[in-house]
Design goal:
about 475 residues; single chain; elongated; alpha/beta; about 20% strand
Length: about 475
Amino acid sequence: MKVDVSQIEIAAVGADLLAVGLCEGEDLPADLASARGAADAKGGFKKLATIHPESPSRVLVVGLGKRAELDPERTRIAAALAAKEAGRLDATSIAWALPESGRDDALAGGLVTGTILGAYRFDRFKSRDEEGPAPAALESLTLLAPEGVAAAAEAARVCAEAQNRARDLQSLPSNVATPTHLAERAGEIAAAHDSLTVEVLDREQIAAKGMGGLVAVSQGGPEDPRLIVLRYSGGGSGETLGLVGKGVTFDTGGISLKSAPGMQEMKMDMSGAAAVLEAVGAIAELGLALELIAVVPSTENMPSGTAIKPGDIITQYNGKTVEINNTDAEGRLILADALAYAAELGAERIVDIATLTGAVMMALGSTYAGLVSNDDELAAAVEQVGRETGELVWRLPLHPEYKAMTKGAVADLTNSAAKRKAGTIYAGSFLEEFVGETPWAHVDIAGTSWDVGRPYTGNDASGFGVRLLTALARELAG
């Protein structure tokens, strides 16, 4: 979407739709207060009213609620509501008057993000009557705002567009979005930026390196696994950041088969991979000053005569052995190899992101992602950028009693404890075994990767994590 910042007057706006925000107890701007329908405009949060001044001919008033509560999240929601209204009106261009505040950059970024995410739709596989017109798409956004917000608006555009690309990857069916497809997408991202390089390992190379988790999970299906490594060289004087994303392109549960209802959603078990890939693209486009290594292990998890079985024992990349007591606890097996590999490649801080446990949905719903970390400073940084982006995380504790649950009976570790306790923390405790002394944070997005229900993400793929990881990289750059 094209995004511009302009200082023109409201009356001179040429967009198909102008949106203005209204806080509770406040009045519309003088040039709109006498417009037809102005009496219907309310400042209650998410209230919408269309008014008709002489110029422009159509203005959408969006309620922002109490001024004391006006923040970037409210502007994201308001902008998404306006974008959806623009779609209903077949508008291809929208303008937004930046609400007055002391946080121009943050609110401008919220308007850009909400507009781009709110206008998203995934209709690649829908047929259309050749005689009928294609649905109108929102193509441009003009911010009526000071020139100084242009950089913040552009950064928000880059991140929101990257998030929508992650949503595309999530939404693709698993017969399209295979591990090979993810590797090809990584190649496209790398080809677009001189600061990026990509390396992709196939099944034989993965096995030769001793990545027993990725080999084991992939052996039940015909699709070859891929280990994708993207390296970004942006300079800077800080520590090298490592990003790891779970890329299970379809998860049946393996021999420990999932129940049929809802299994179609398991095409989104690669949401962590989508977030990492597209965040790396955004980081490169923004030219952030840091060094970064991204590792994406990708495979299907299928049941067959060659699939890994409960009770089998594997050896992970760092040499630790694992009893497989549940083949549906596969994500931690492939992440274990990838985490150890990222540390070996030189990552000095690591964040992994994964649709890892159903338990996190029971604990936090779709409002917060779960956060488990061995480092207070890194955890605090992730929490802070979560608050800024609206991609919220909630830290869960590590404790020796949780760690004890991961110990195996006849191997070093087990991927699933006999007692179903603290499932999200258990998974995090398992992953901690593969990062050594490296500061590390694990983000469980099983509840936030789709069906979040916010106006700017809707009830399908959310692309959660792209803006979180990009903001973290910006925070660590320097």
